[in-house]
């Protein structure tokens, strides 16, 4: 006859037996390639950051970190795919500031930004630049401000889609000037940049990771950077703050996520690989070429990332609500 004491002993034995298996599983991770989802089109600034980080993390993890571009819906399609993925560490998400703004921007978001992910760590803060087509009339930021105010809807501003960093920057730019421009959303920054270089649109505000090369090649006009200090890689470009738009400041941060419920052991391994990547001389040098740098290592922790994300959601909520721009 089975006794209660015997059942308890059996359960305890099963639990103890499971511990070595769980530990072994954690030690084996990763035993196959890891997919890093980028919720935007290939060739854009977030894609550039992801590929640099993925290459370095691959060496640390001993398995390939494969970048998969899942664009659409301002980044929410790709983020939603990761939120619903098996929480085993093999599917991760590299997203930018749009992870925070989506919580307010989208009325029917299919996931909860704050509760459906495990934060792995922050990656980088990227300045942005306001750039124009090479034939645009204004010669500097002061002339551009006057030009936009005078021409208003005749000025065509492109962005990478609702919720993208370029969309947010454009909202702030128009709000600061107290005027509107004709806005053309694209399926990613790459197509928007192509049309700017081709002269089909007039303006774009985008991350230095995507604009520095075009600026240095003389393919676009640079009017200002969106940080309080000048960008080291673009020393000749003034800040908008000092060019007639006092207080204008926006930077695009990037972070790494896993689905909610991913075991801590896997998160720790992913975080360790991320921290190693942020100290990789090749990553640091390439980031510098693109006008950015890795975050300080104390910011590259799951805890700091989690707290920062919550603060960013709270920060952008009133800005988006005041602008009255929402998406379904």
UniProtKB/TrEMBL annotation:
Keywords: Signal. It comes from the Bacteria. It comes from Ancylobacter dichloromethanicus. Transmembrane segments: none annotated. The keyword Signal applies. Belongs to the UPF0065 (bug) family. Residues 1-26 form the signal peptide. InterPro entries: BUG, Bug_dom1. This is Tripartite tricarboxylate transporter substrate binding protein BugD.
């Amino acid at each position: 006859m089975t006794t209660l004491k015997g059942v308890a002993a059996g359960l305890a034995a099963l639990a103890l037996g499971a511990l070595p298996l769980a530990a072994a599983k954690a030690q084996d991770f990763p035993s196959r390639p890891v997919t890093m989802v980028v919720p935007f089109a290939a060739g854009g600034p977030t894609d550039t950051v992801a590929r640099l980080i993925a290459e370095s993390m691959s060496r640390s993890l001993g398995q390939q970190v494969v970048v998969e571009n899942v664009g659409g819906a301002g980044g929410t399609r790709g983020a939603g795919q990761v939120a619903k993925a098996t929480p085993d560490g093999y599917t991760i998400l590299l997203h930018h500031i749009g992870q925070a703004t989506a919580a307010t921007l989208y009325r029917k978001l299919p996931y909860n930004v704050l509760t459906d992910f495990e934060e792995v760590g922050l990656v980088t803060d990227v300045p942005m630049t306001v750039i124009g087509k090479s034939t645009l009339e204004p010669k500097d930021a002061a002339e551009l401000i006057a030009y936009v105010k005078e021409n208003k809807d005749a000025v065509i501003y492109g962005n990478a889609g609702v919720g993208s960093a370029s969309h947010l920057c454009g909202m702030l730019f128009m709000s600061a000037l107290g005027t509107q421009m004709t806005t053309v959303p694209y399926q990613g920054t790459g197509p928007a940049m192509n049309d700017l270089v081709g002269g089909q649109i007039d303006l774009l505000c985008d991350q230095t990771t995507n604009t520095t090369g075009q600026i240095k090649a003389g393919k676009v006009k640079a009017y200002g950077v969106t940080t309080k200090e000048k960008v080291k890689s673009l020393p000749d470009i003034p800040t908008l703050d000092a060019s007639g738009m006092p207080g204008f400041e926006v930077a695009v941060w990037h972070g790494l996520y896993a689905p909610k419920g991913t075991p801590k052991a896997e998160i720790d391994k992913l975080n360790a690989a991320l921290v190693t990547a942020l100290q990789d001389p090749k990553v640091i040098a390439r980031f510098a070429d693109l006008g950015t740098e890795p975050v300080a290592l104390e910011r590259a922790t799951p805890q700091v990332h989690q707290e920062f994300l919550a603060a960013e959601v709270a920060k952008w909520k009133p800005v988006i609500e005041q602008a009255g721009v929402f998406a379904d």
